Amino acid sequence: MYPNGYKEYQANLAPLTLFPTPFPRIEFEKAKSIATAYNKLYANIVSQHQWLLDAVRSLSEFDTTFTGKLYQCYLEAEKRGIVQPVALGLVRSDYMYDTVSKVIKQVEYNTVSVSFAGISREVGKLHKFLNDSGLYTKSGEKYYGEDGLIVSDAADGLARGLREAVSYYERTHSSPGKTIVLFVVQPNERNAFDQRHIEYSLFEKFGIVSKRIELPDVTASVKVDNQTRKLFYQDREVSVVYYRSAYGPGEFTKKETWDCRILLESTLAIKCPSLLVQLSGAKKIQQLLTSTAILDKFLPTDEKKADLVSTFCKIYPLDDSEDATIAKKLAFEKPENFVLKPQREGGGNNIYKEEIPGFLKSIPEKDWAGFILMELIHPPVAKNVMLRDGELLRSGTVSELGVYGSFLFNEKTGKIIHNEYQGHLLRSKISSSNEGGVAAGYGCVDSLYLI
Ligand code: ADP
Ligand code: MG
Ligand code: MG
């Protein structure tokens, strides 16, 4: 037994690679340069939210366990009154370099609980240390040139995003230095060390204190002022609710947990993300955005629009629309070119290639509408050594670049108060594995060597 009644804890080392992975510099720069355009696009989707709500309402018929529940939560929170129109997005847009088109293609845009900002910096520092101290070569020389090996600033980046929201809240509703950030985490959180980097950065750089709470404990542990709707935790006023939880149906096995989410949504604290921002990250929305007409509605002009569009993959709906007719044929005739995705986060949920026809046949055709059919990206295979669970594995690897961003905006007026690129992540997995999530047990945290 440890102090404070903690039971014995065991820590697992996050899986990582021993070497950085080469990545085309020009494509990395492009991914960085379109980060704020993507954020603007999603801020616009949320602020013109009737379209989003309509899309989510029809989705919720096919995905009653999660998207539908989030939508119901939003309706319930709205009934109680959403008093804070300003929302924070801490997001990560994920890409793979595609060897066929020779450009990066977007895997997905994550709007809730994006992870590995902290660990990506540490792995970058590790690779830089190994290189600078000559440990990669027998002669003690550096193996990688100086300017190609870059360390991600994402932990400080996400802290900067949170600071923007804290400052805004304190300017409008409180006074400087008076409030805290509430990290809402999962029970038995496995990724706490990654989150701690953000917590420490918030405090060291900006003097902002944060507290951690488990999602199911919220209702019993917080106080909400009836009049002002201000949120308090341990008698401290909370300016920002930062979810590192609430992204999967497994977390909401009890009605009380959904009530916690609704309660927080209807307080004056700024939510990261709000329910609408979270819902905008649905894979169905990513599919709908590949239609030029829909994209033009939410991002009529932007100097980076062409670059942004160049990252789109072909994604098909499987509903009763015209586009779905061809998709339903392709899914059975050429499944090897596709991945089938439900509206889920956190890895381990997709159906790949040859498994698609059998899976589709196993469910009623009306339920196919809850999925999207996405063309596979073909990343290059590199060589690396992975360290996982104390064992070394030499393998061919494929990599996924994550680009972090933060944006603070008014969901009612669409006014963007802050919008920035906030660092990067590289994850690599065994080249024969379809999935890539690190926490889900498929991938390793890696770093970039720009070529
Ligand atoms: P999640 O939200 O669960 O992370 P993703 O859309 O990121 O879902 O899919 C999980 C993993 O599946 C990705 O990390 C990637 O390795 C793989 N993947 C997803 N889409 C594609 C694609 N179009 N081409 C190749 N691999 C993909
Ligand atoms: Mg995701
Ligand atoms: Mg993903």
TrEMBL record:
Organism, scientific name: Brettanomyces naardenensis
Binding site for substrate: 92, 112-115, 189-191, 195, 244-247, 427, 438-439
Amino-acid positions noted as binding Mg(2+) in the UniProt annotation, renumbered to this chain: E108, N110, E345
Reactions mediated catalytically: gamma-L-glutamyl-L-cysteine + glycine + ATP = glutathione + ADP + phosphate + H(+)
Annotated InterPro entries: Glutathione_synthase, Glutathione_synthase_a-hlx, Glutathione_synthase_C_euk, Glutathione_synthase_N_euk, GSH-S_sub-bd_sf, GSH_synth_subst-bd, PreATP-grasp_dom_sf
Pfam families: GSH_synth_ATP (PF03917), GSH_synthase (PF03199)
Similarity comment text for this entry: Belongs to the eukaryotic GSH synthase family.
Keyword Magnesium attached: yes
Full protein name: Glutathione synthetase
Needed cofactors: Mg(2+)
Signal peptide start-end: none
A GO cellular component annotation in the UniProt record: cytosol
Lineage, highest ranks first: Eukaryota, Fungi, Dikarya, Ascomycota, Saccharomycotina
Pathway, per record: Sulfur metabolism; glutathione biosynthesis; glutathione from L-cysteine and L-glutamate: step 2/2
